[in-house]
Amino acid sequence: MKKSELERYRRQIIIKGFGEKGQKKLSKARVLIMGAGGLGCPAALYLAAAGVGKLVIVDKDNVELNNLNRQILHWSDDVGKEKSFSAAEKLKQLNTEIQVIALKTEITKENCRELVKECSVVVDGMDNWKTRFIVNEVCVQEQVPFVHAGVYALYGQITTIVPGKSPCLKCIIKKKPAETRELPVLGTTPGIIGLLEALETIKLITRIGKPLIGRILSFDGEDLTFKIVQIKKNPKCQVCGIL
Questions:
Q1: Which of 23, 125, 194, 225 could form a disulfide with 35 if both were Cys (CB 3.0 to 4.6 A apart)?
Q2: What's the chain look like in SS3?
């Protein structure tokens, strides 16, 4: 490792069980962040700070003024800019040791496999269930871990899907929920959940700690409580039942 890297990441390298070995694993990792919005922004920010070697940011939208209450990588001067490039610009300024790739594209059945394959982890920063189920299926087929999260108002949830070891999103949510055109959300909610996504991603890459495999963590900001519920794989699941 370079001297600059040893200094930049020193405080996490000295964590017991992490060390230079863990940092090298991060530097070799490729993480796909699906969405540069309320969840994707804080997740990307902390993954960049931690030294993930390659971050791929995918988002089809441009920055709007109403995004700024929660999408912390976009600032007032960025309104109108492509979200993926706005986010990538800040991440590159934060950490010059990593590579950041920005893609303005809509995630579809046709292009999802090309995006997911060869990635270490996929992070859910999406805002609709249709796309989440597409990504879930491809991650299962490619056997790439998928850190799923969602938020609503002051509520959030997160689980880590590891194909063959955990339930997939289809096991957990059998029917696709109705889409909401404009979700109510307090900016701090995706901030909290997005940071947990970054933590889970780092744990998966470095093999430190116990990820949320087979468990859903829910957060209720109204009374500031966290709950964990055990979840089981559906052996008849059409997506992951064969694994």
A1: 125
A2: CCHHHHHHCHHHHCCCCCHHHHHHHHHHCEEEEECCCCCHHHHHHHHHHHCCCEEEEECCCECCHHHCCCCCCCCHHHCCCEHHHHHHHHHHHHCCCCEEEEECCCCCCCCHHHHHCCCCEEEECCCCHHHHHHHHHHHHHHCCCEEEEEEEECEEEEEEECCCCCCCHHHHCCCCCCCCCCCCECCHHHHHHHHHHHHHHHHHHHCCCCCCECEEEEEECCCCEEEEEECCCCCCCCCCCCC
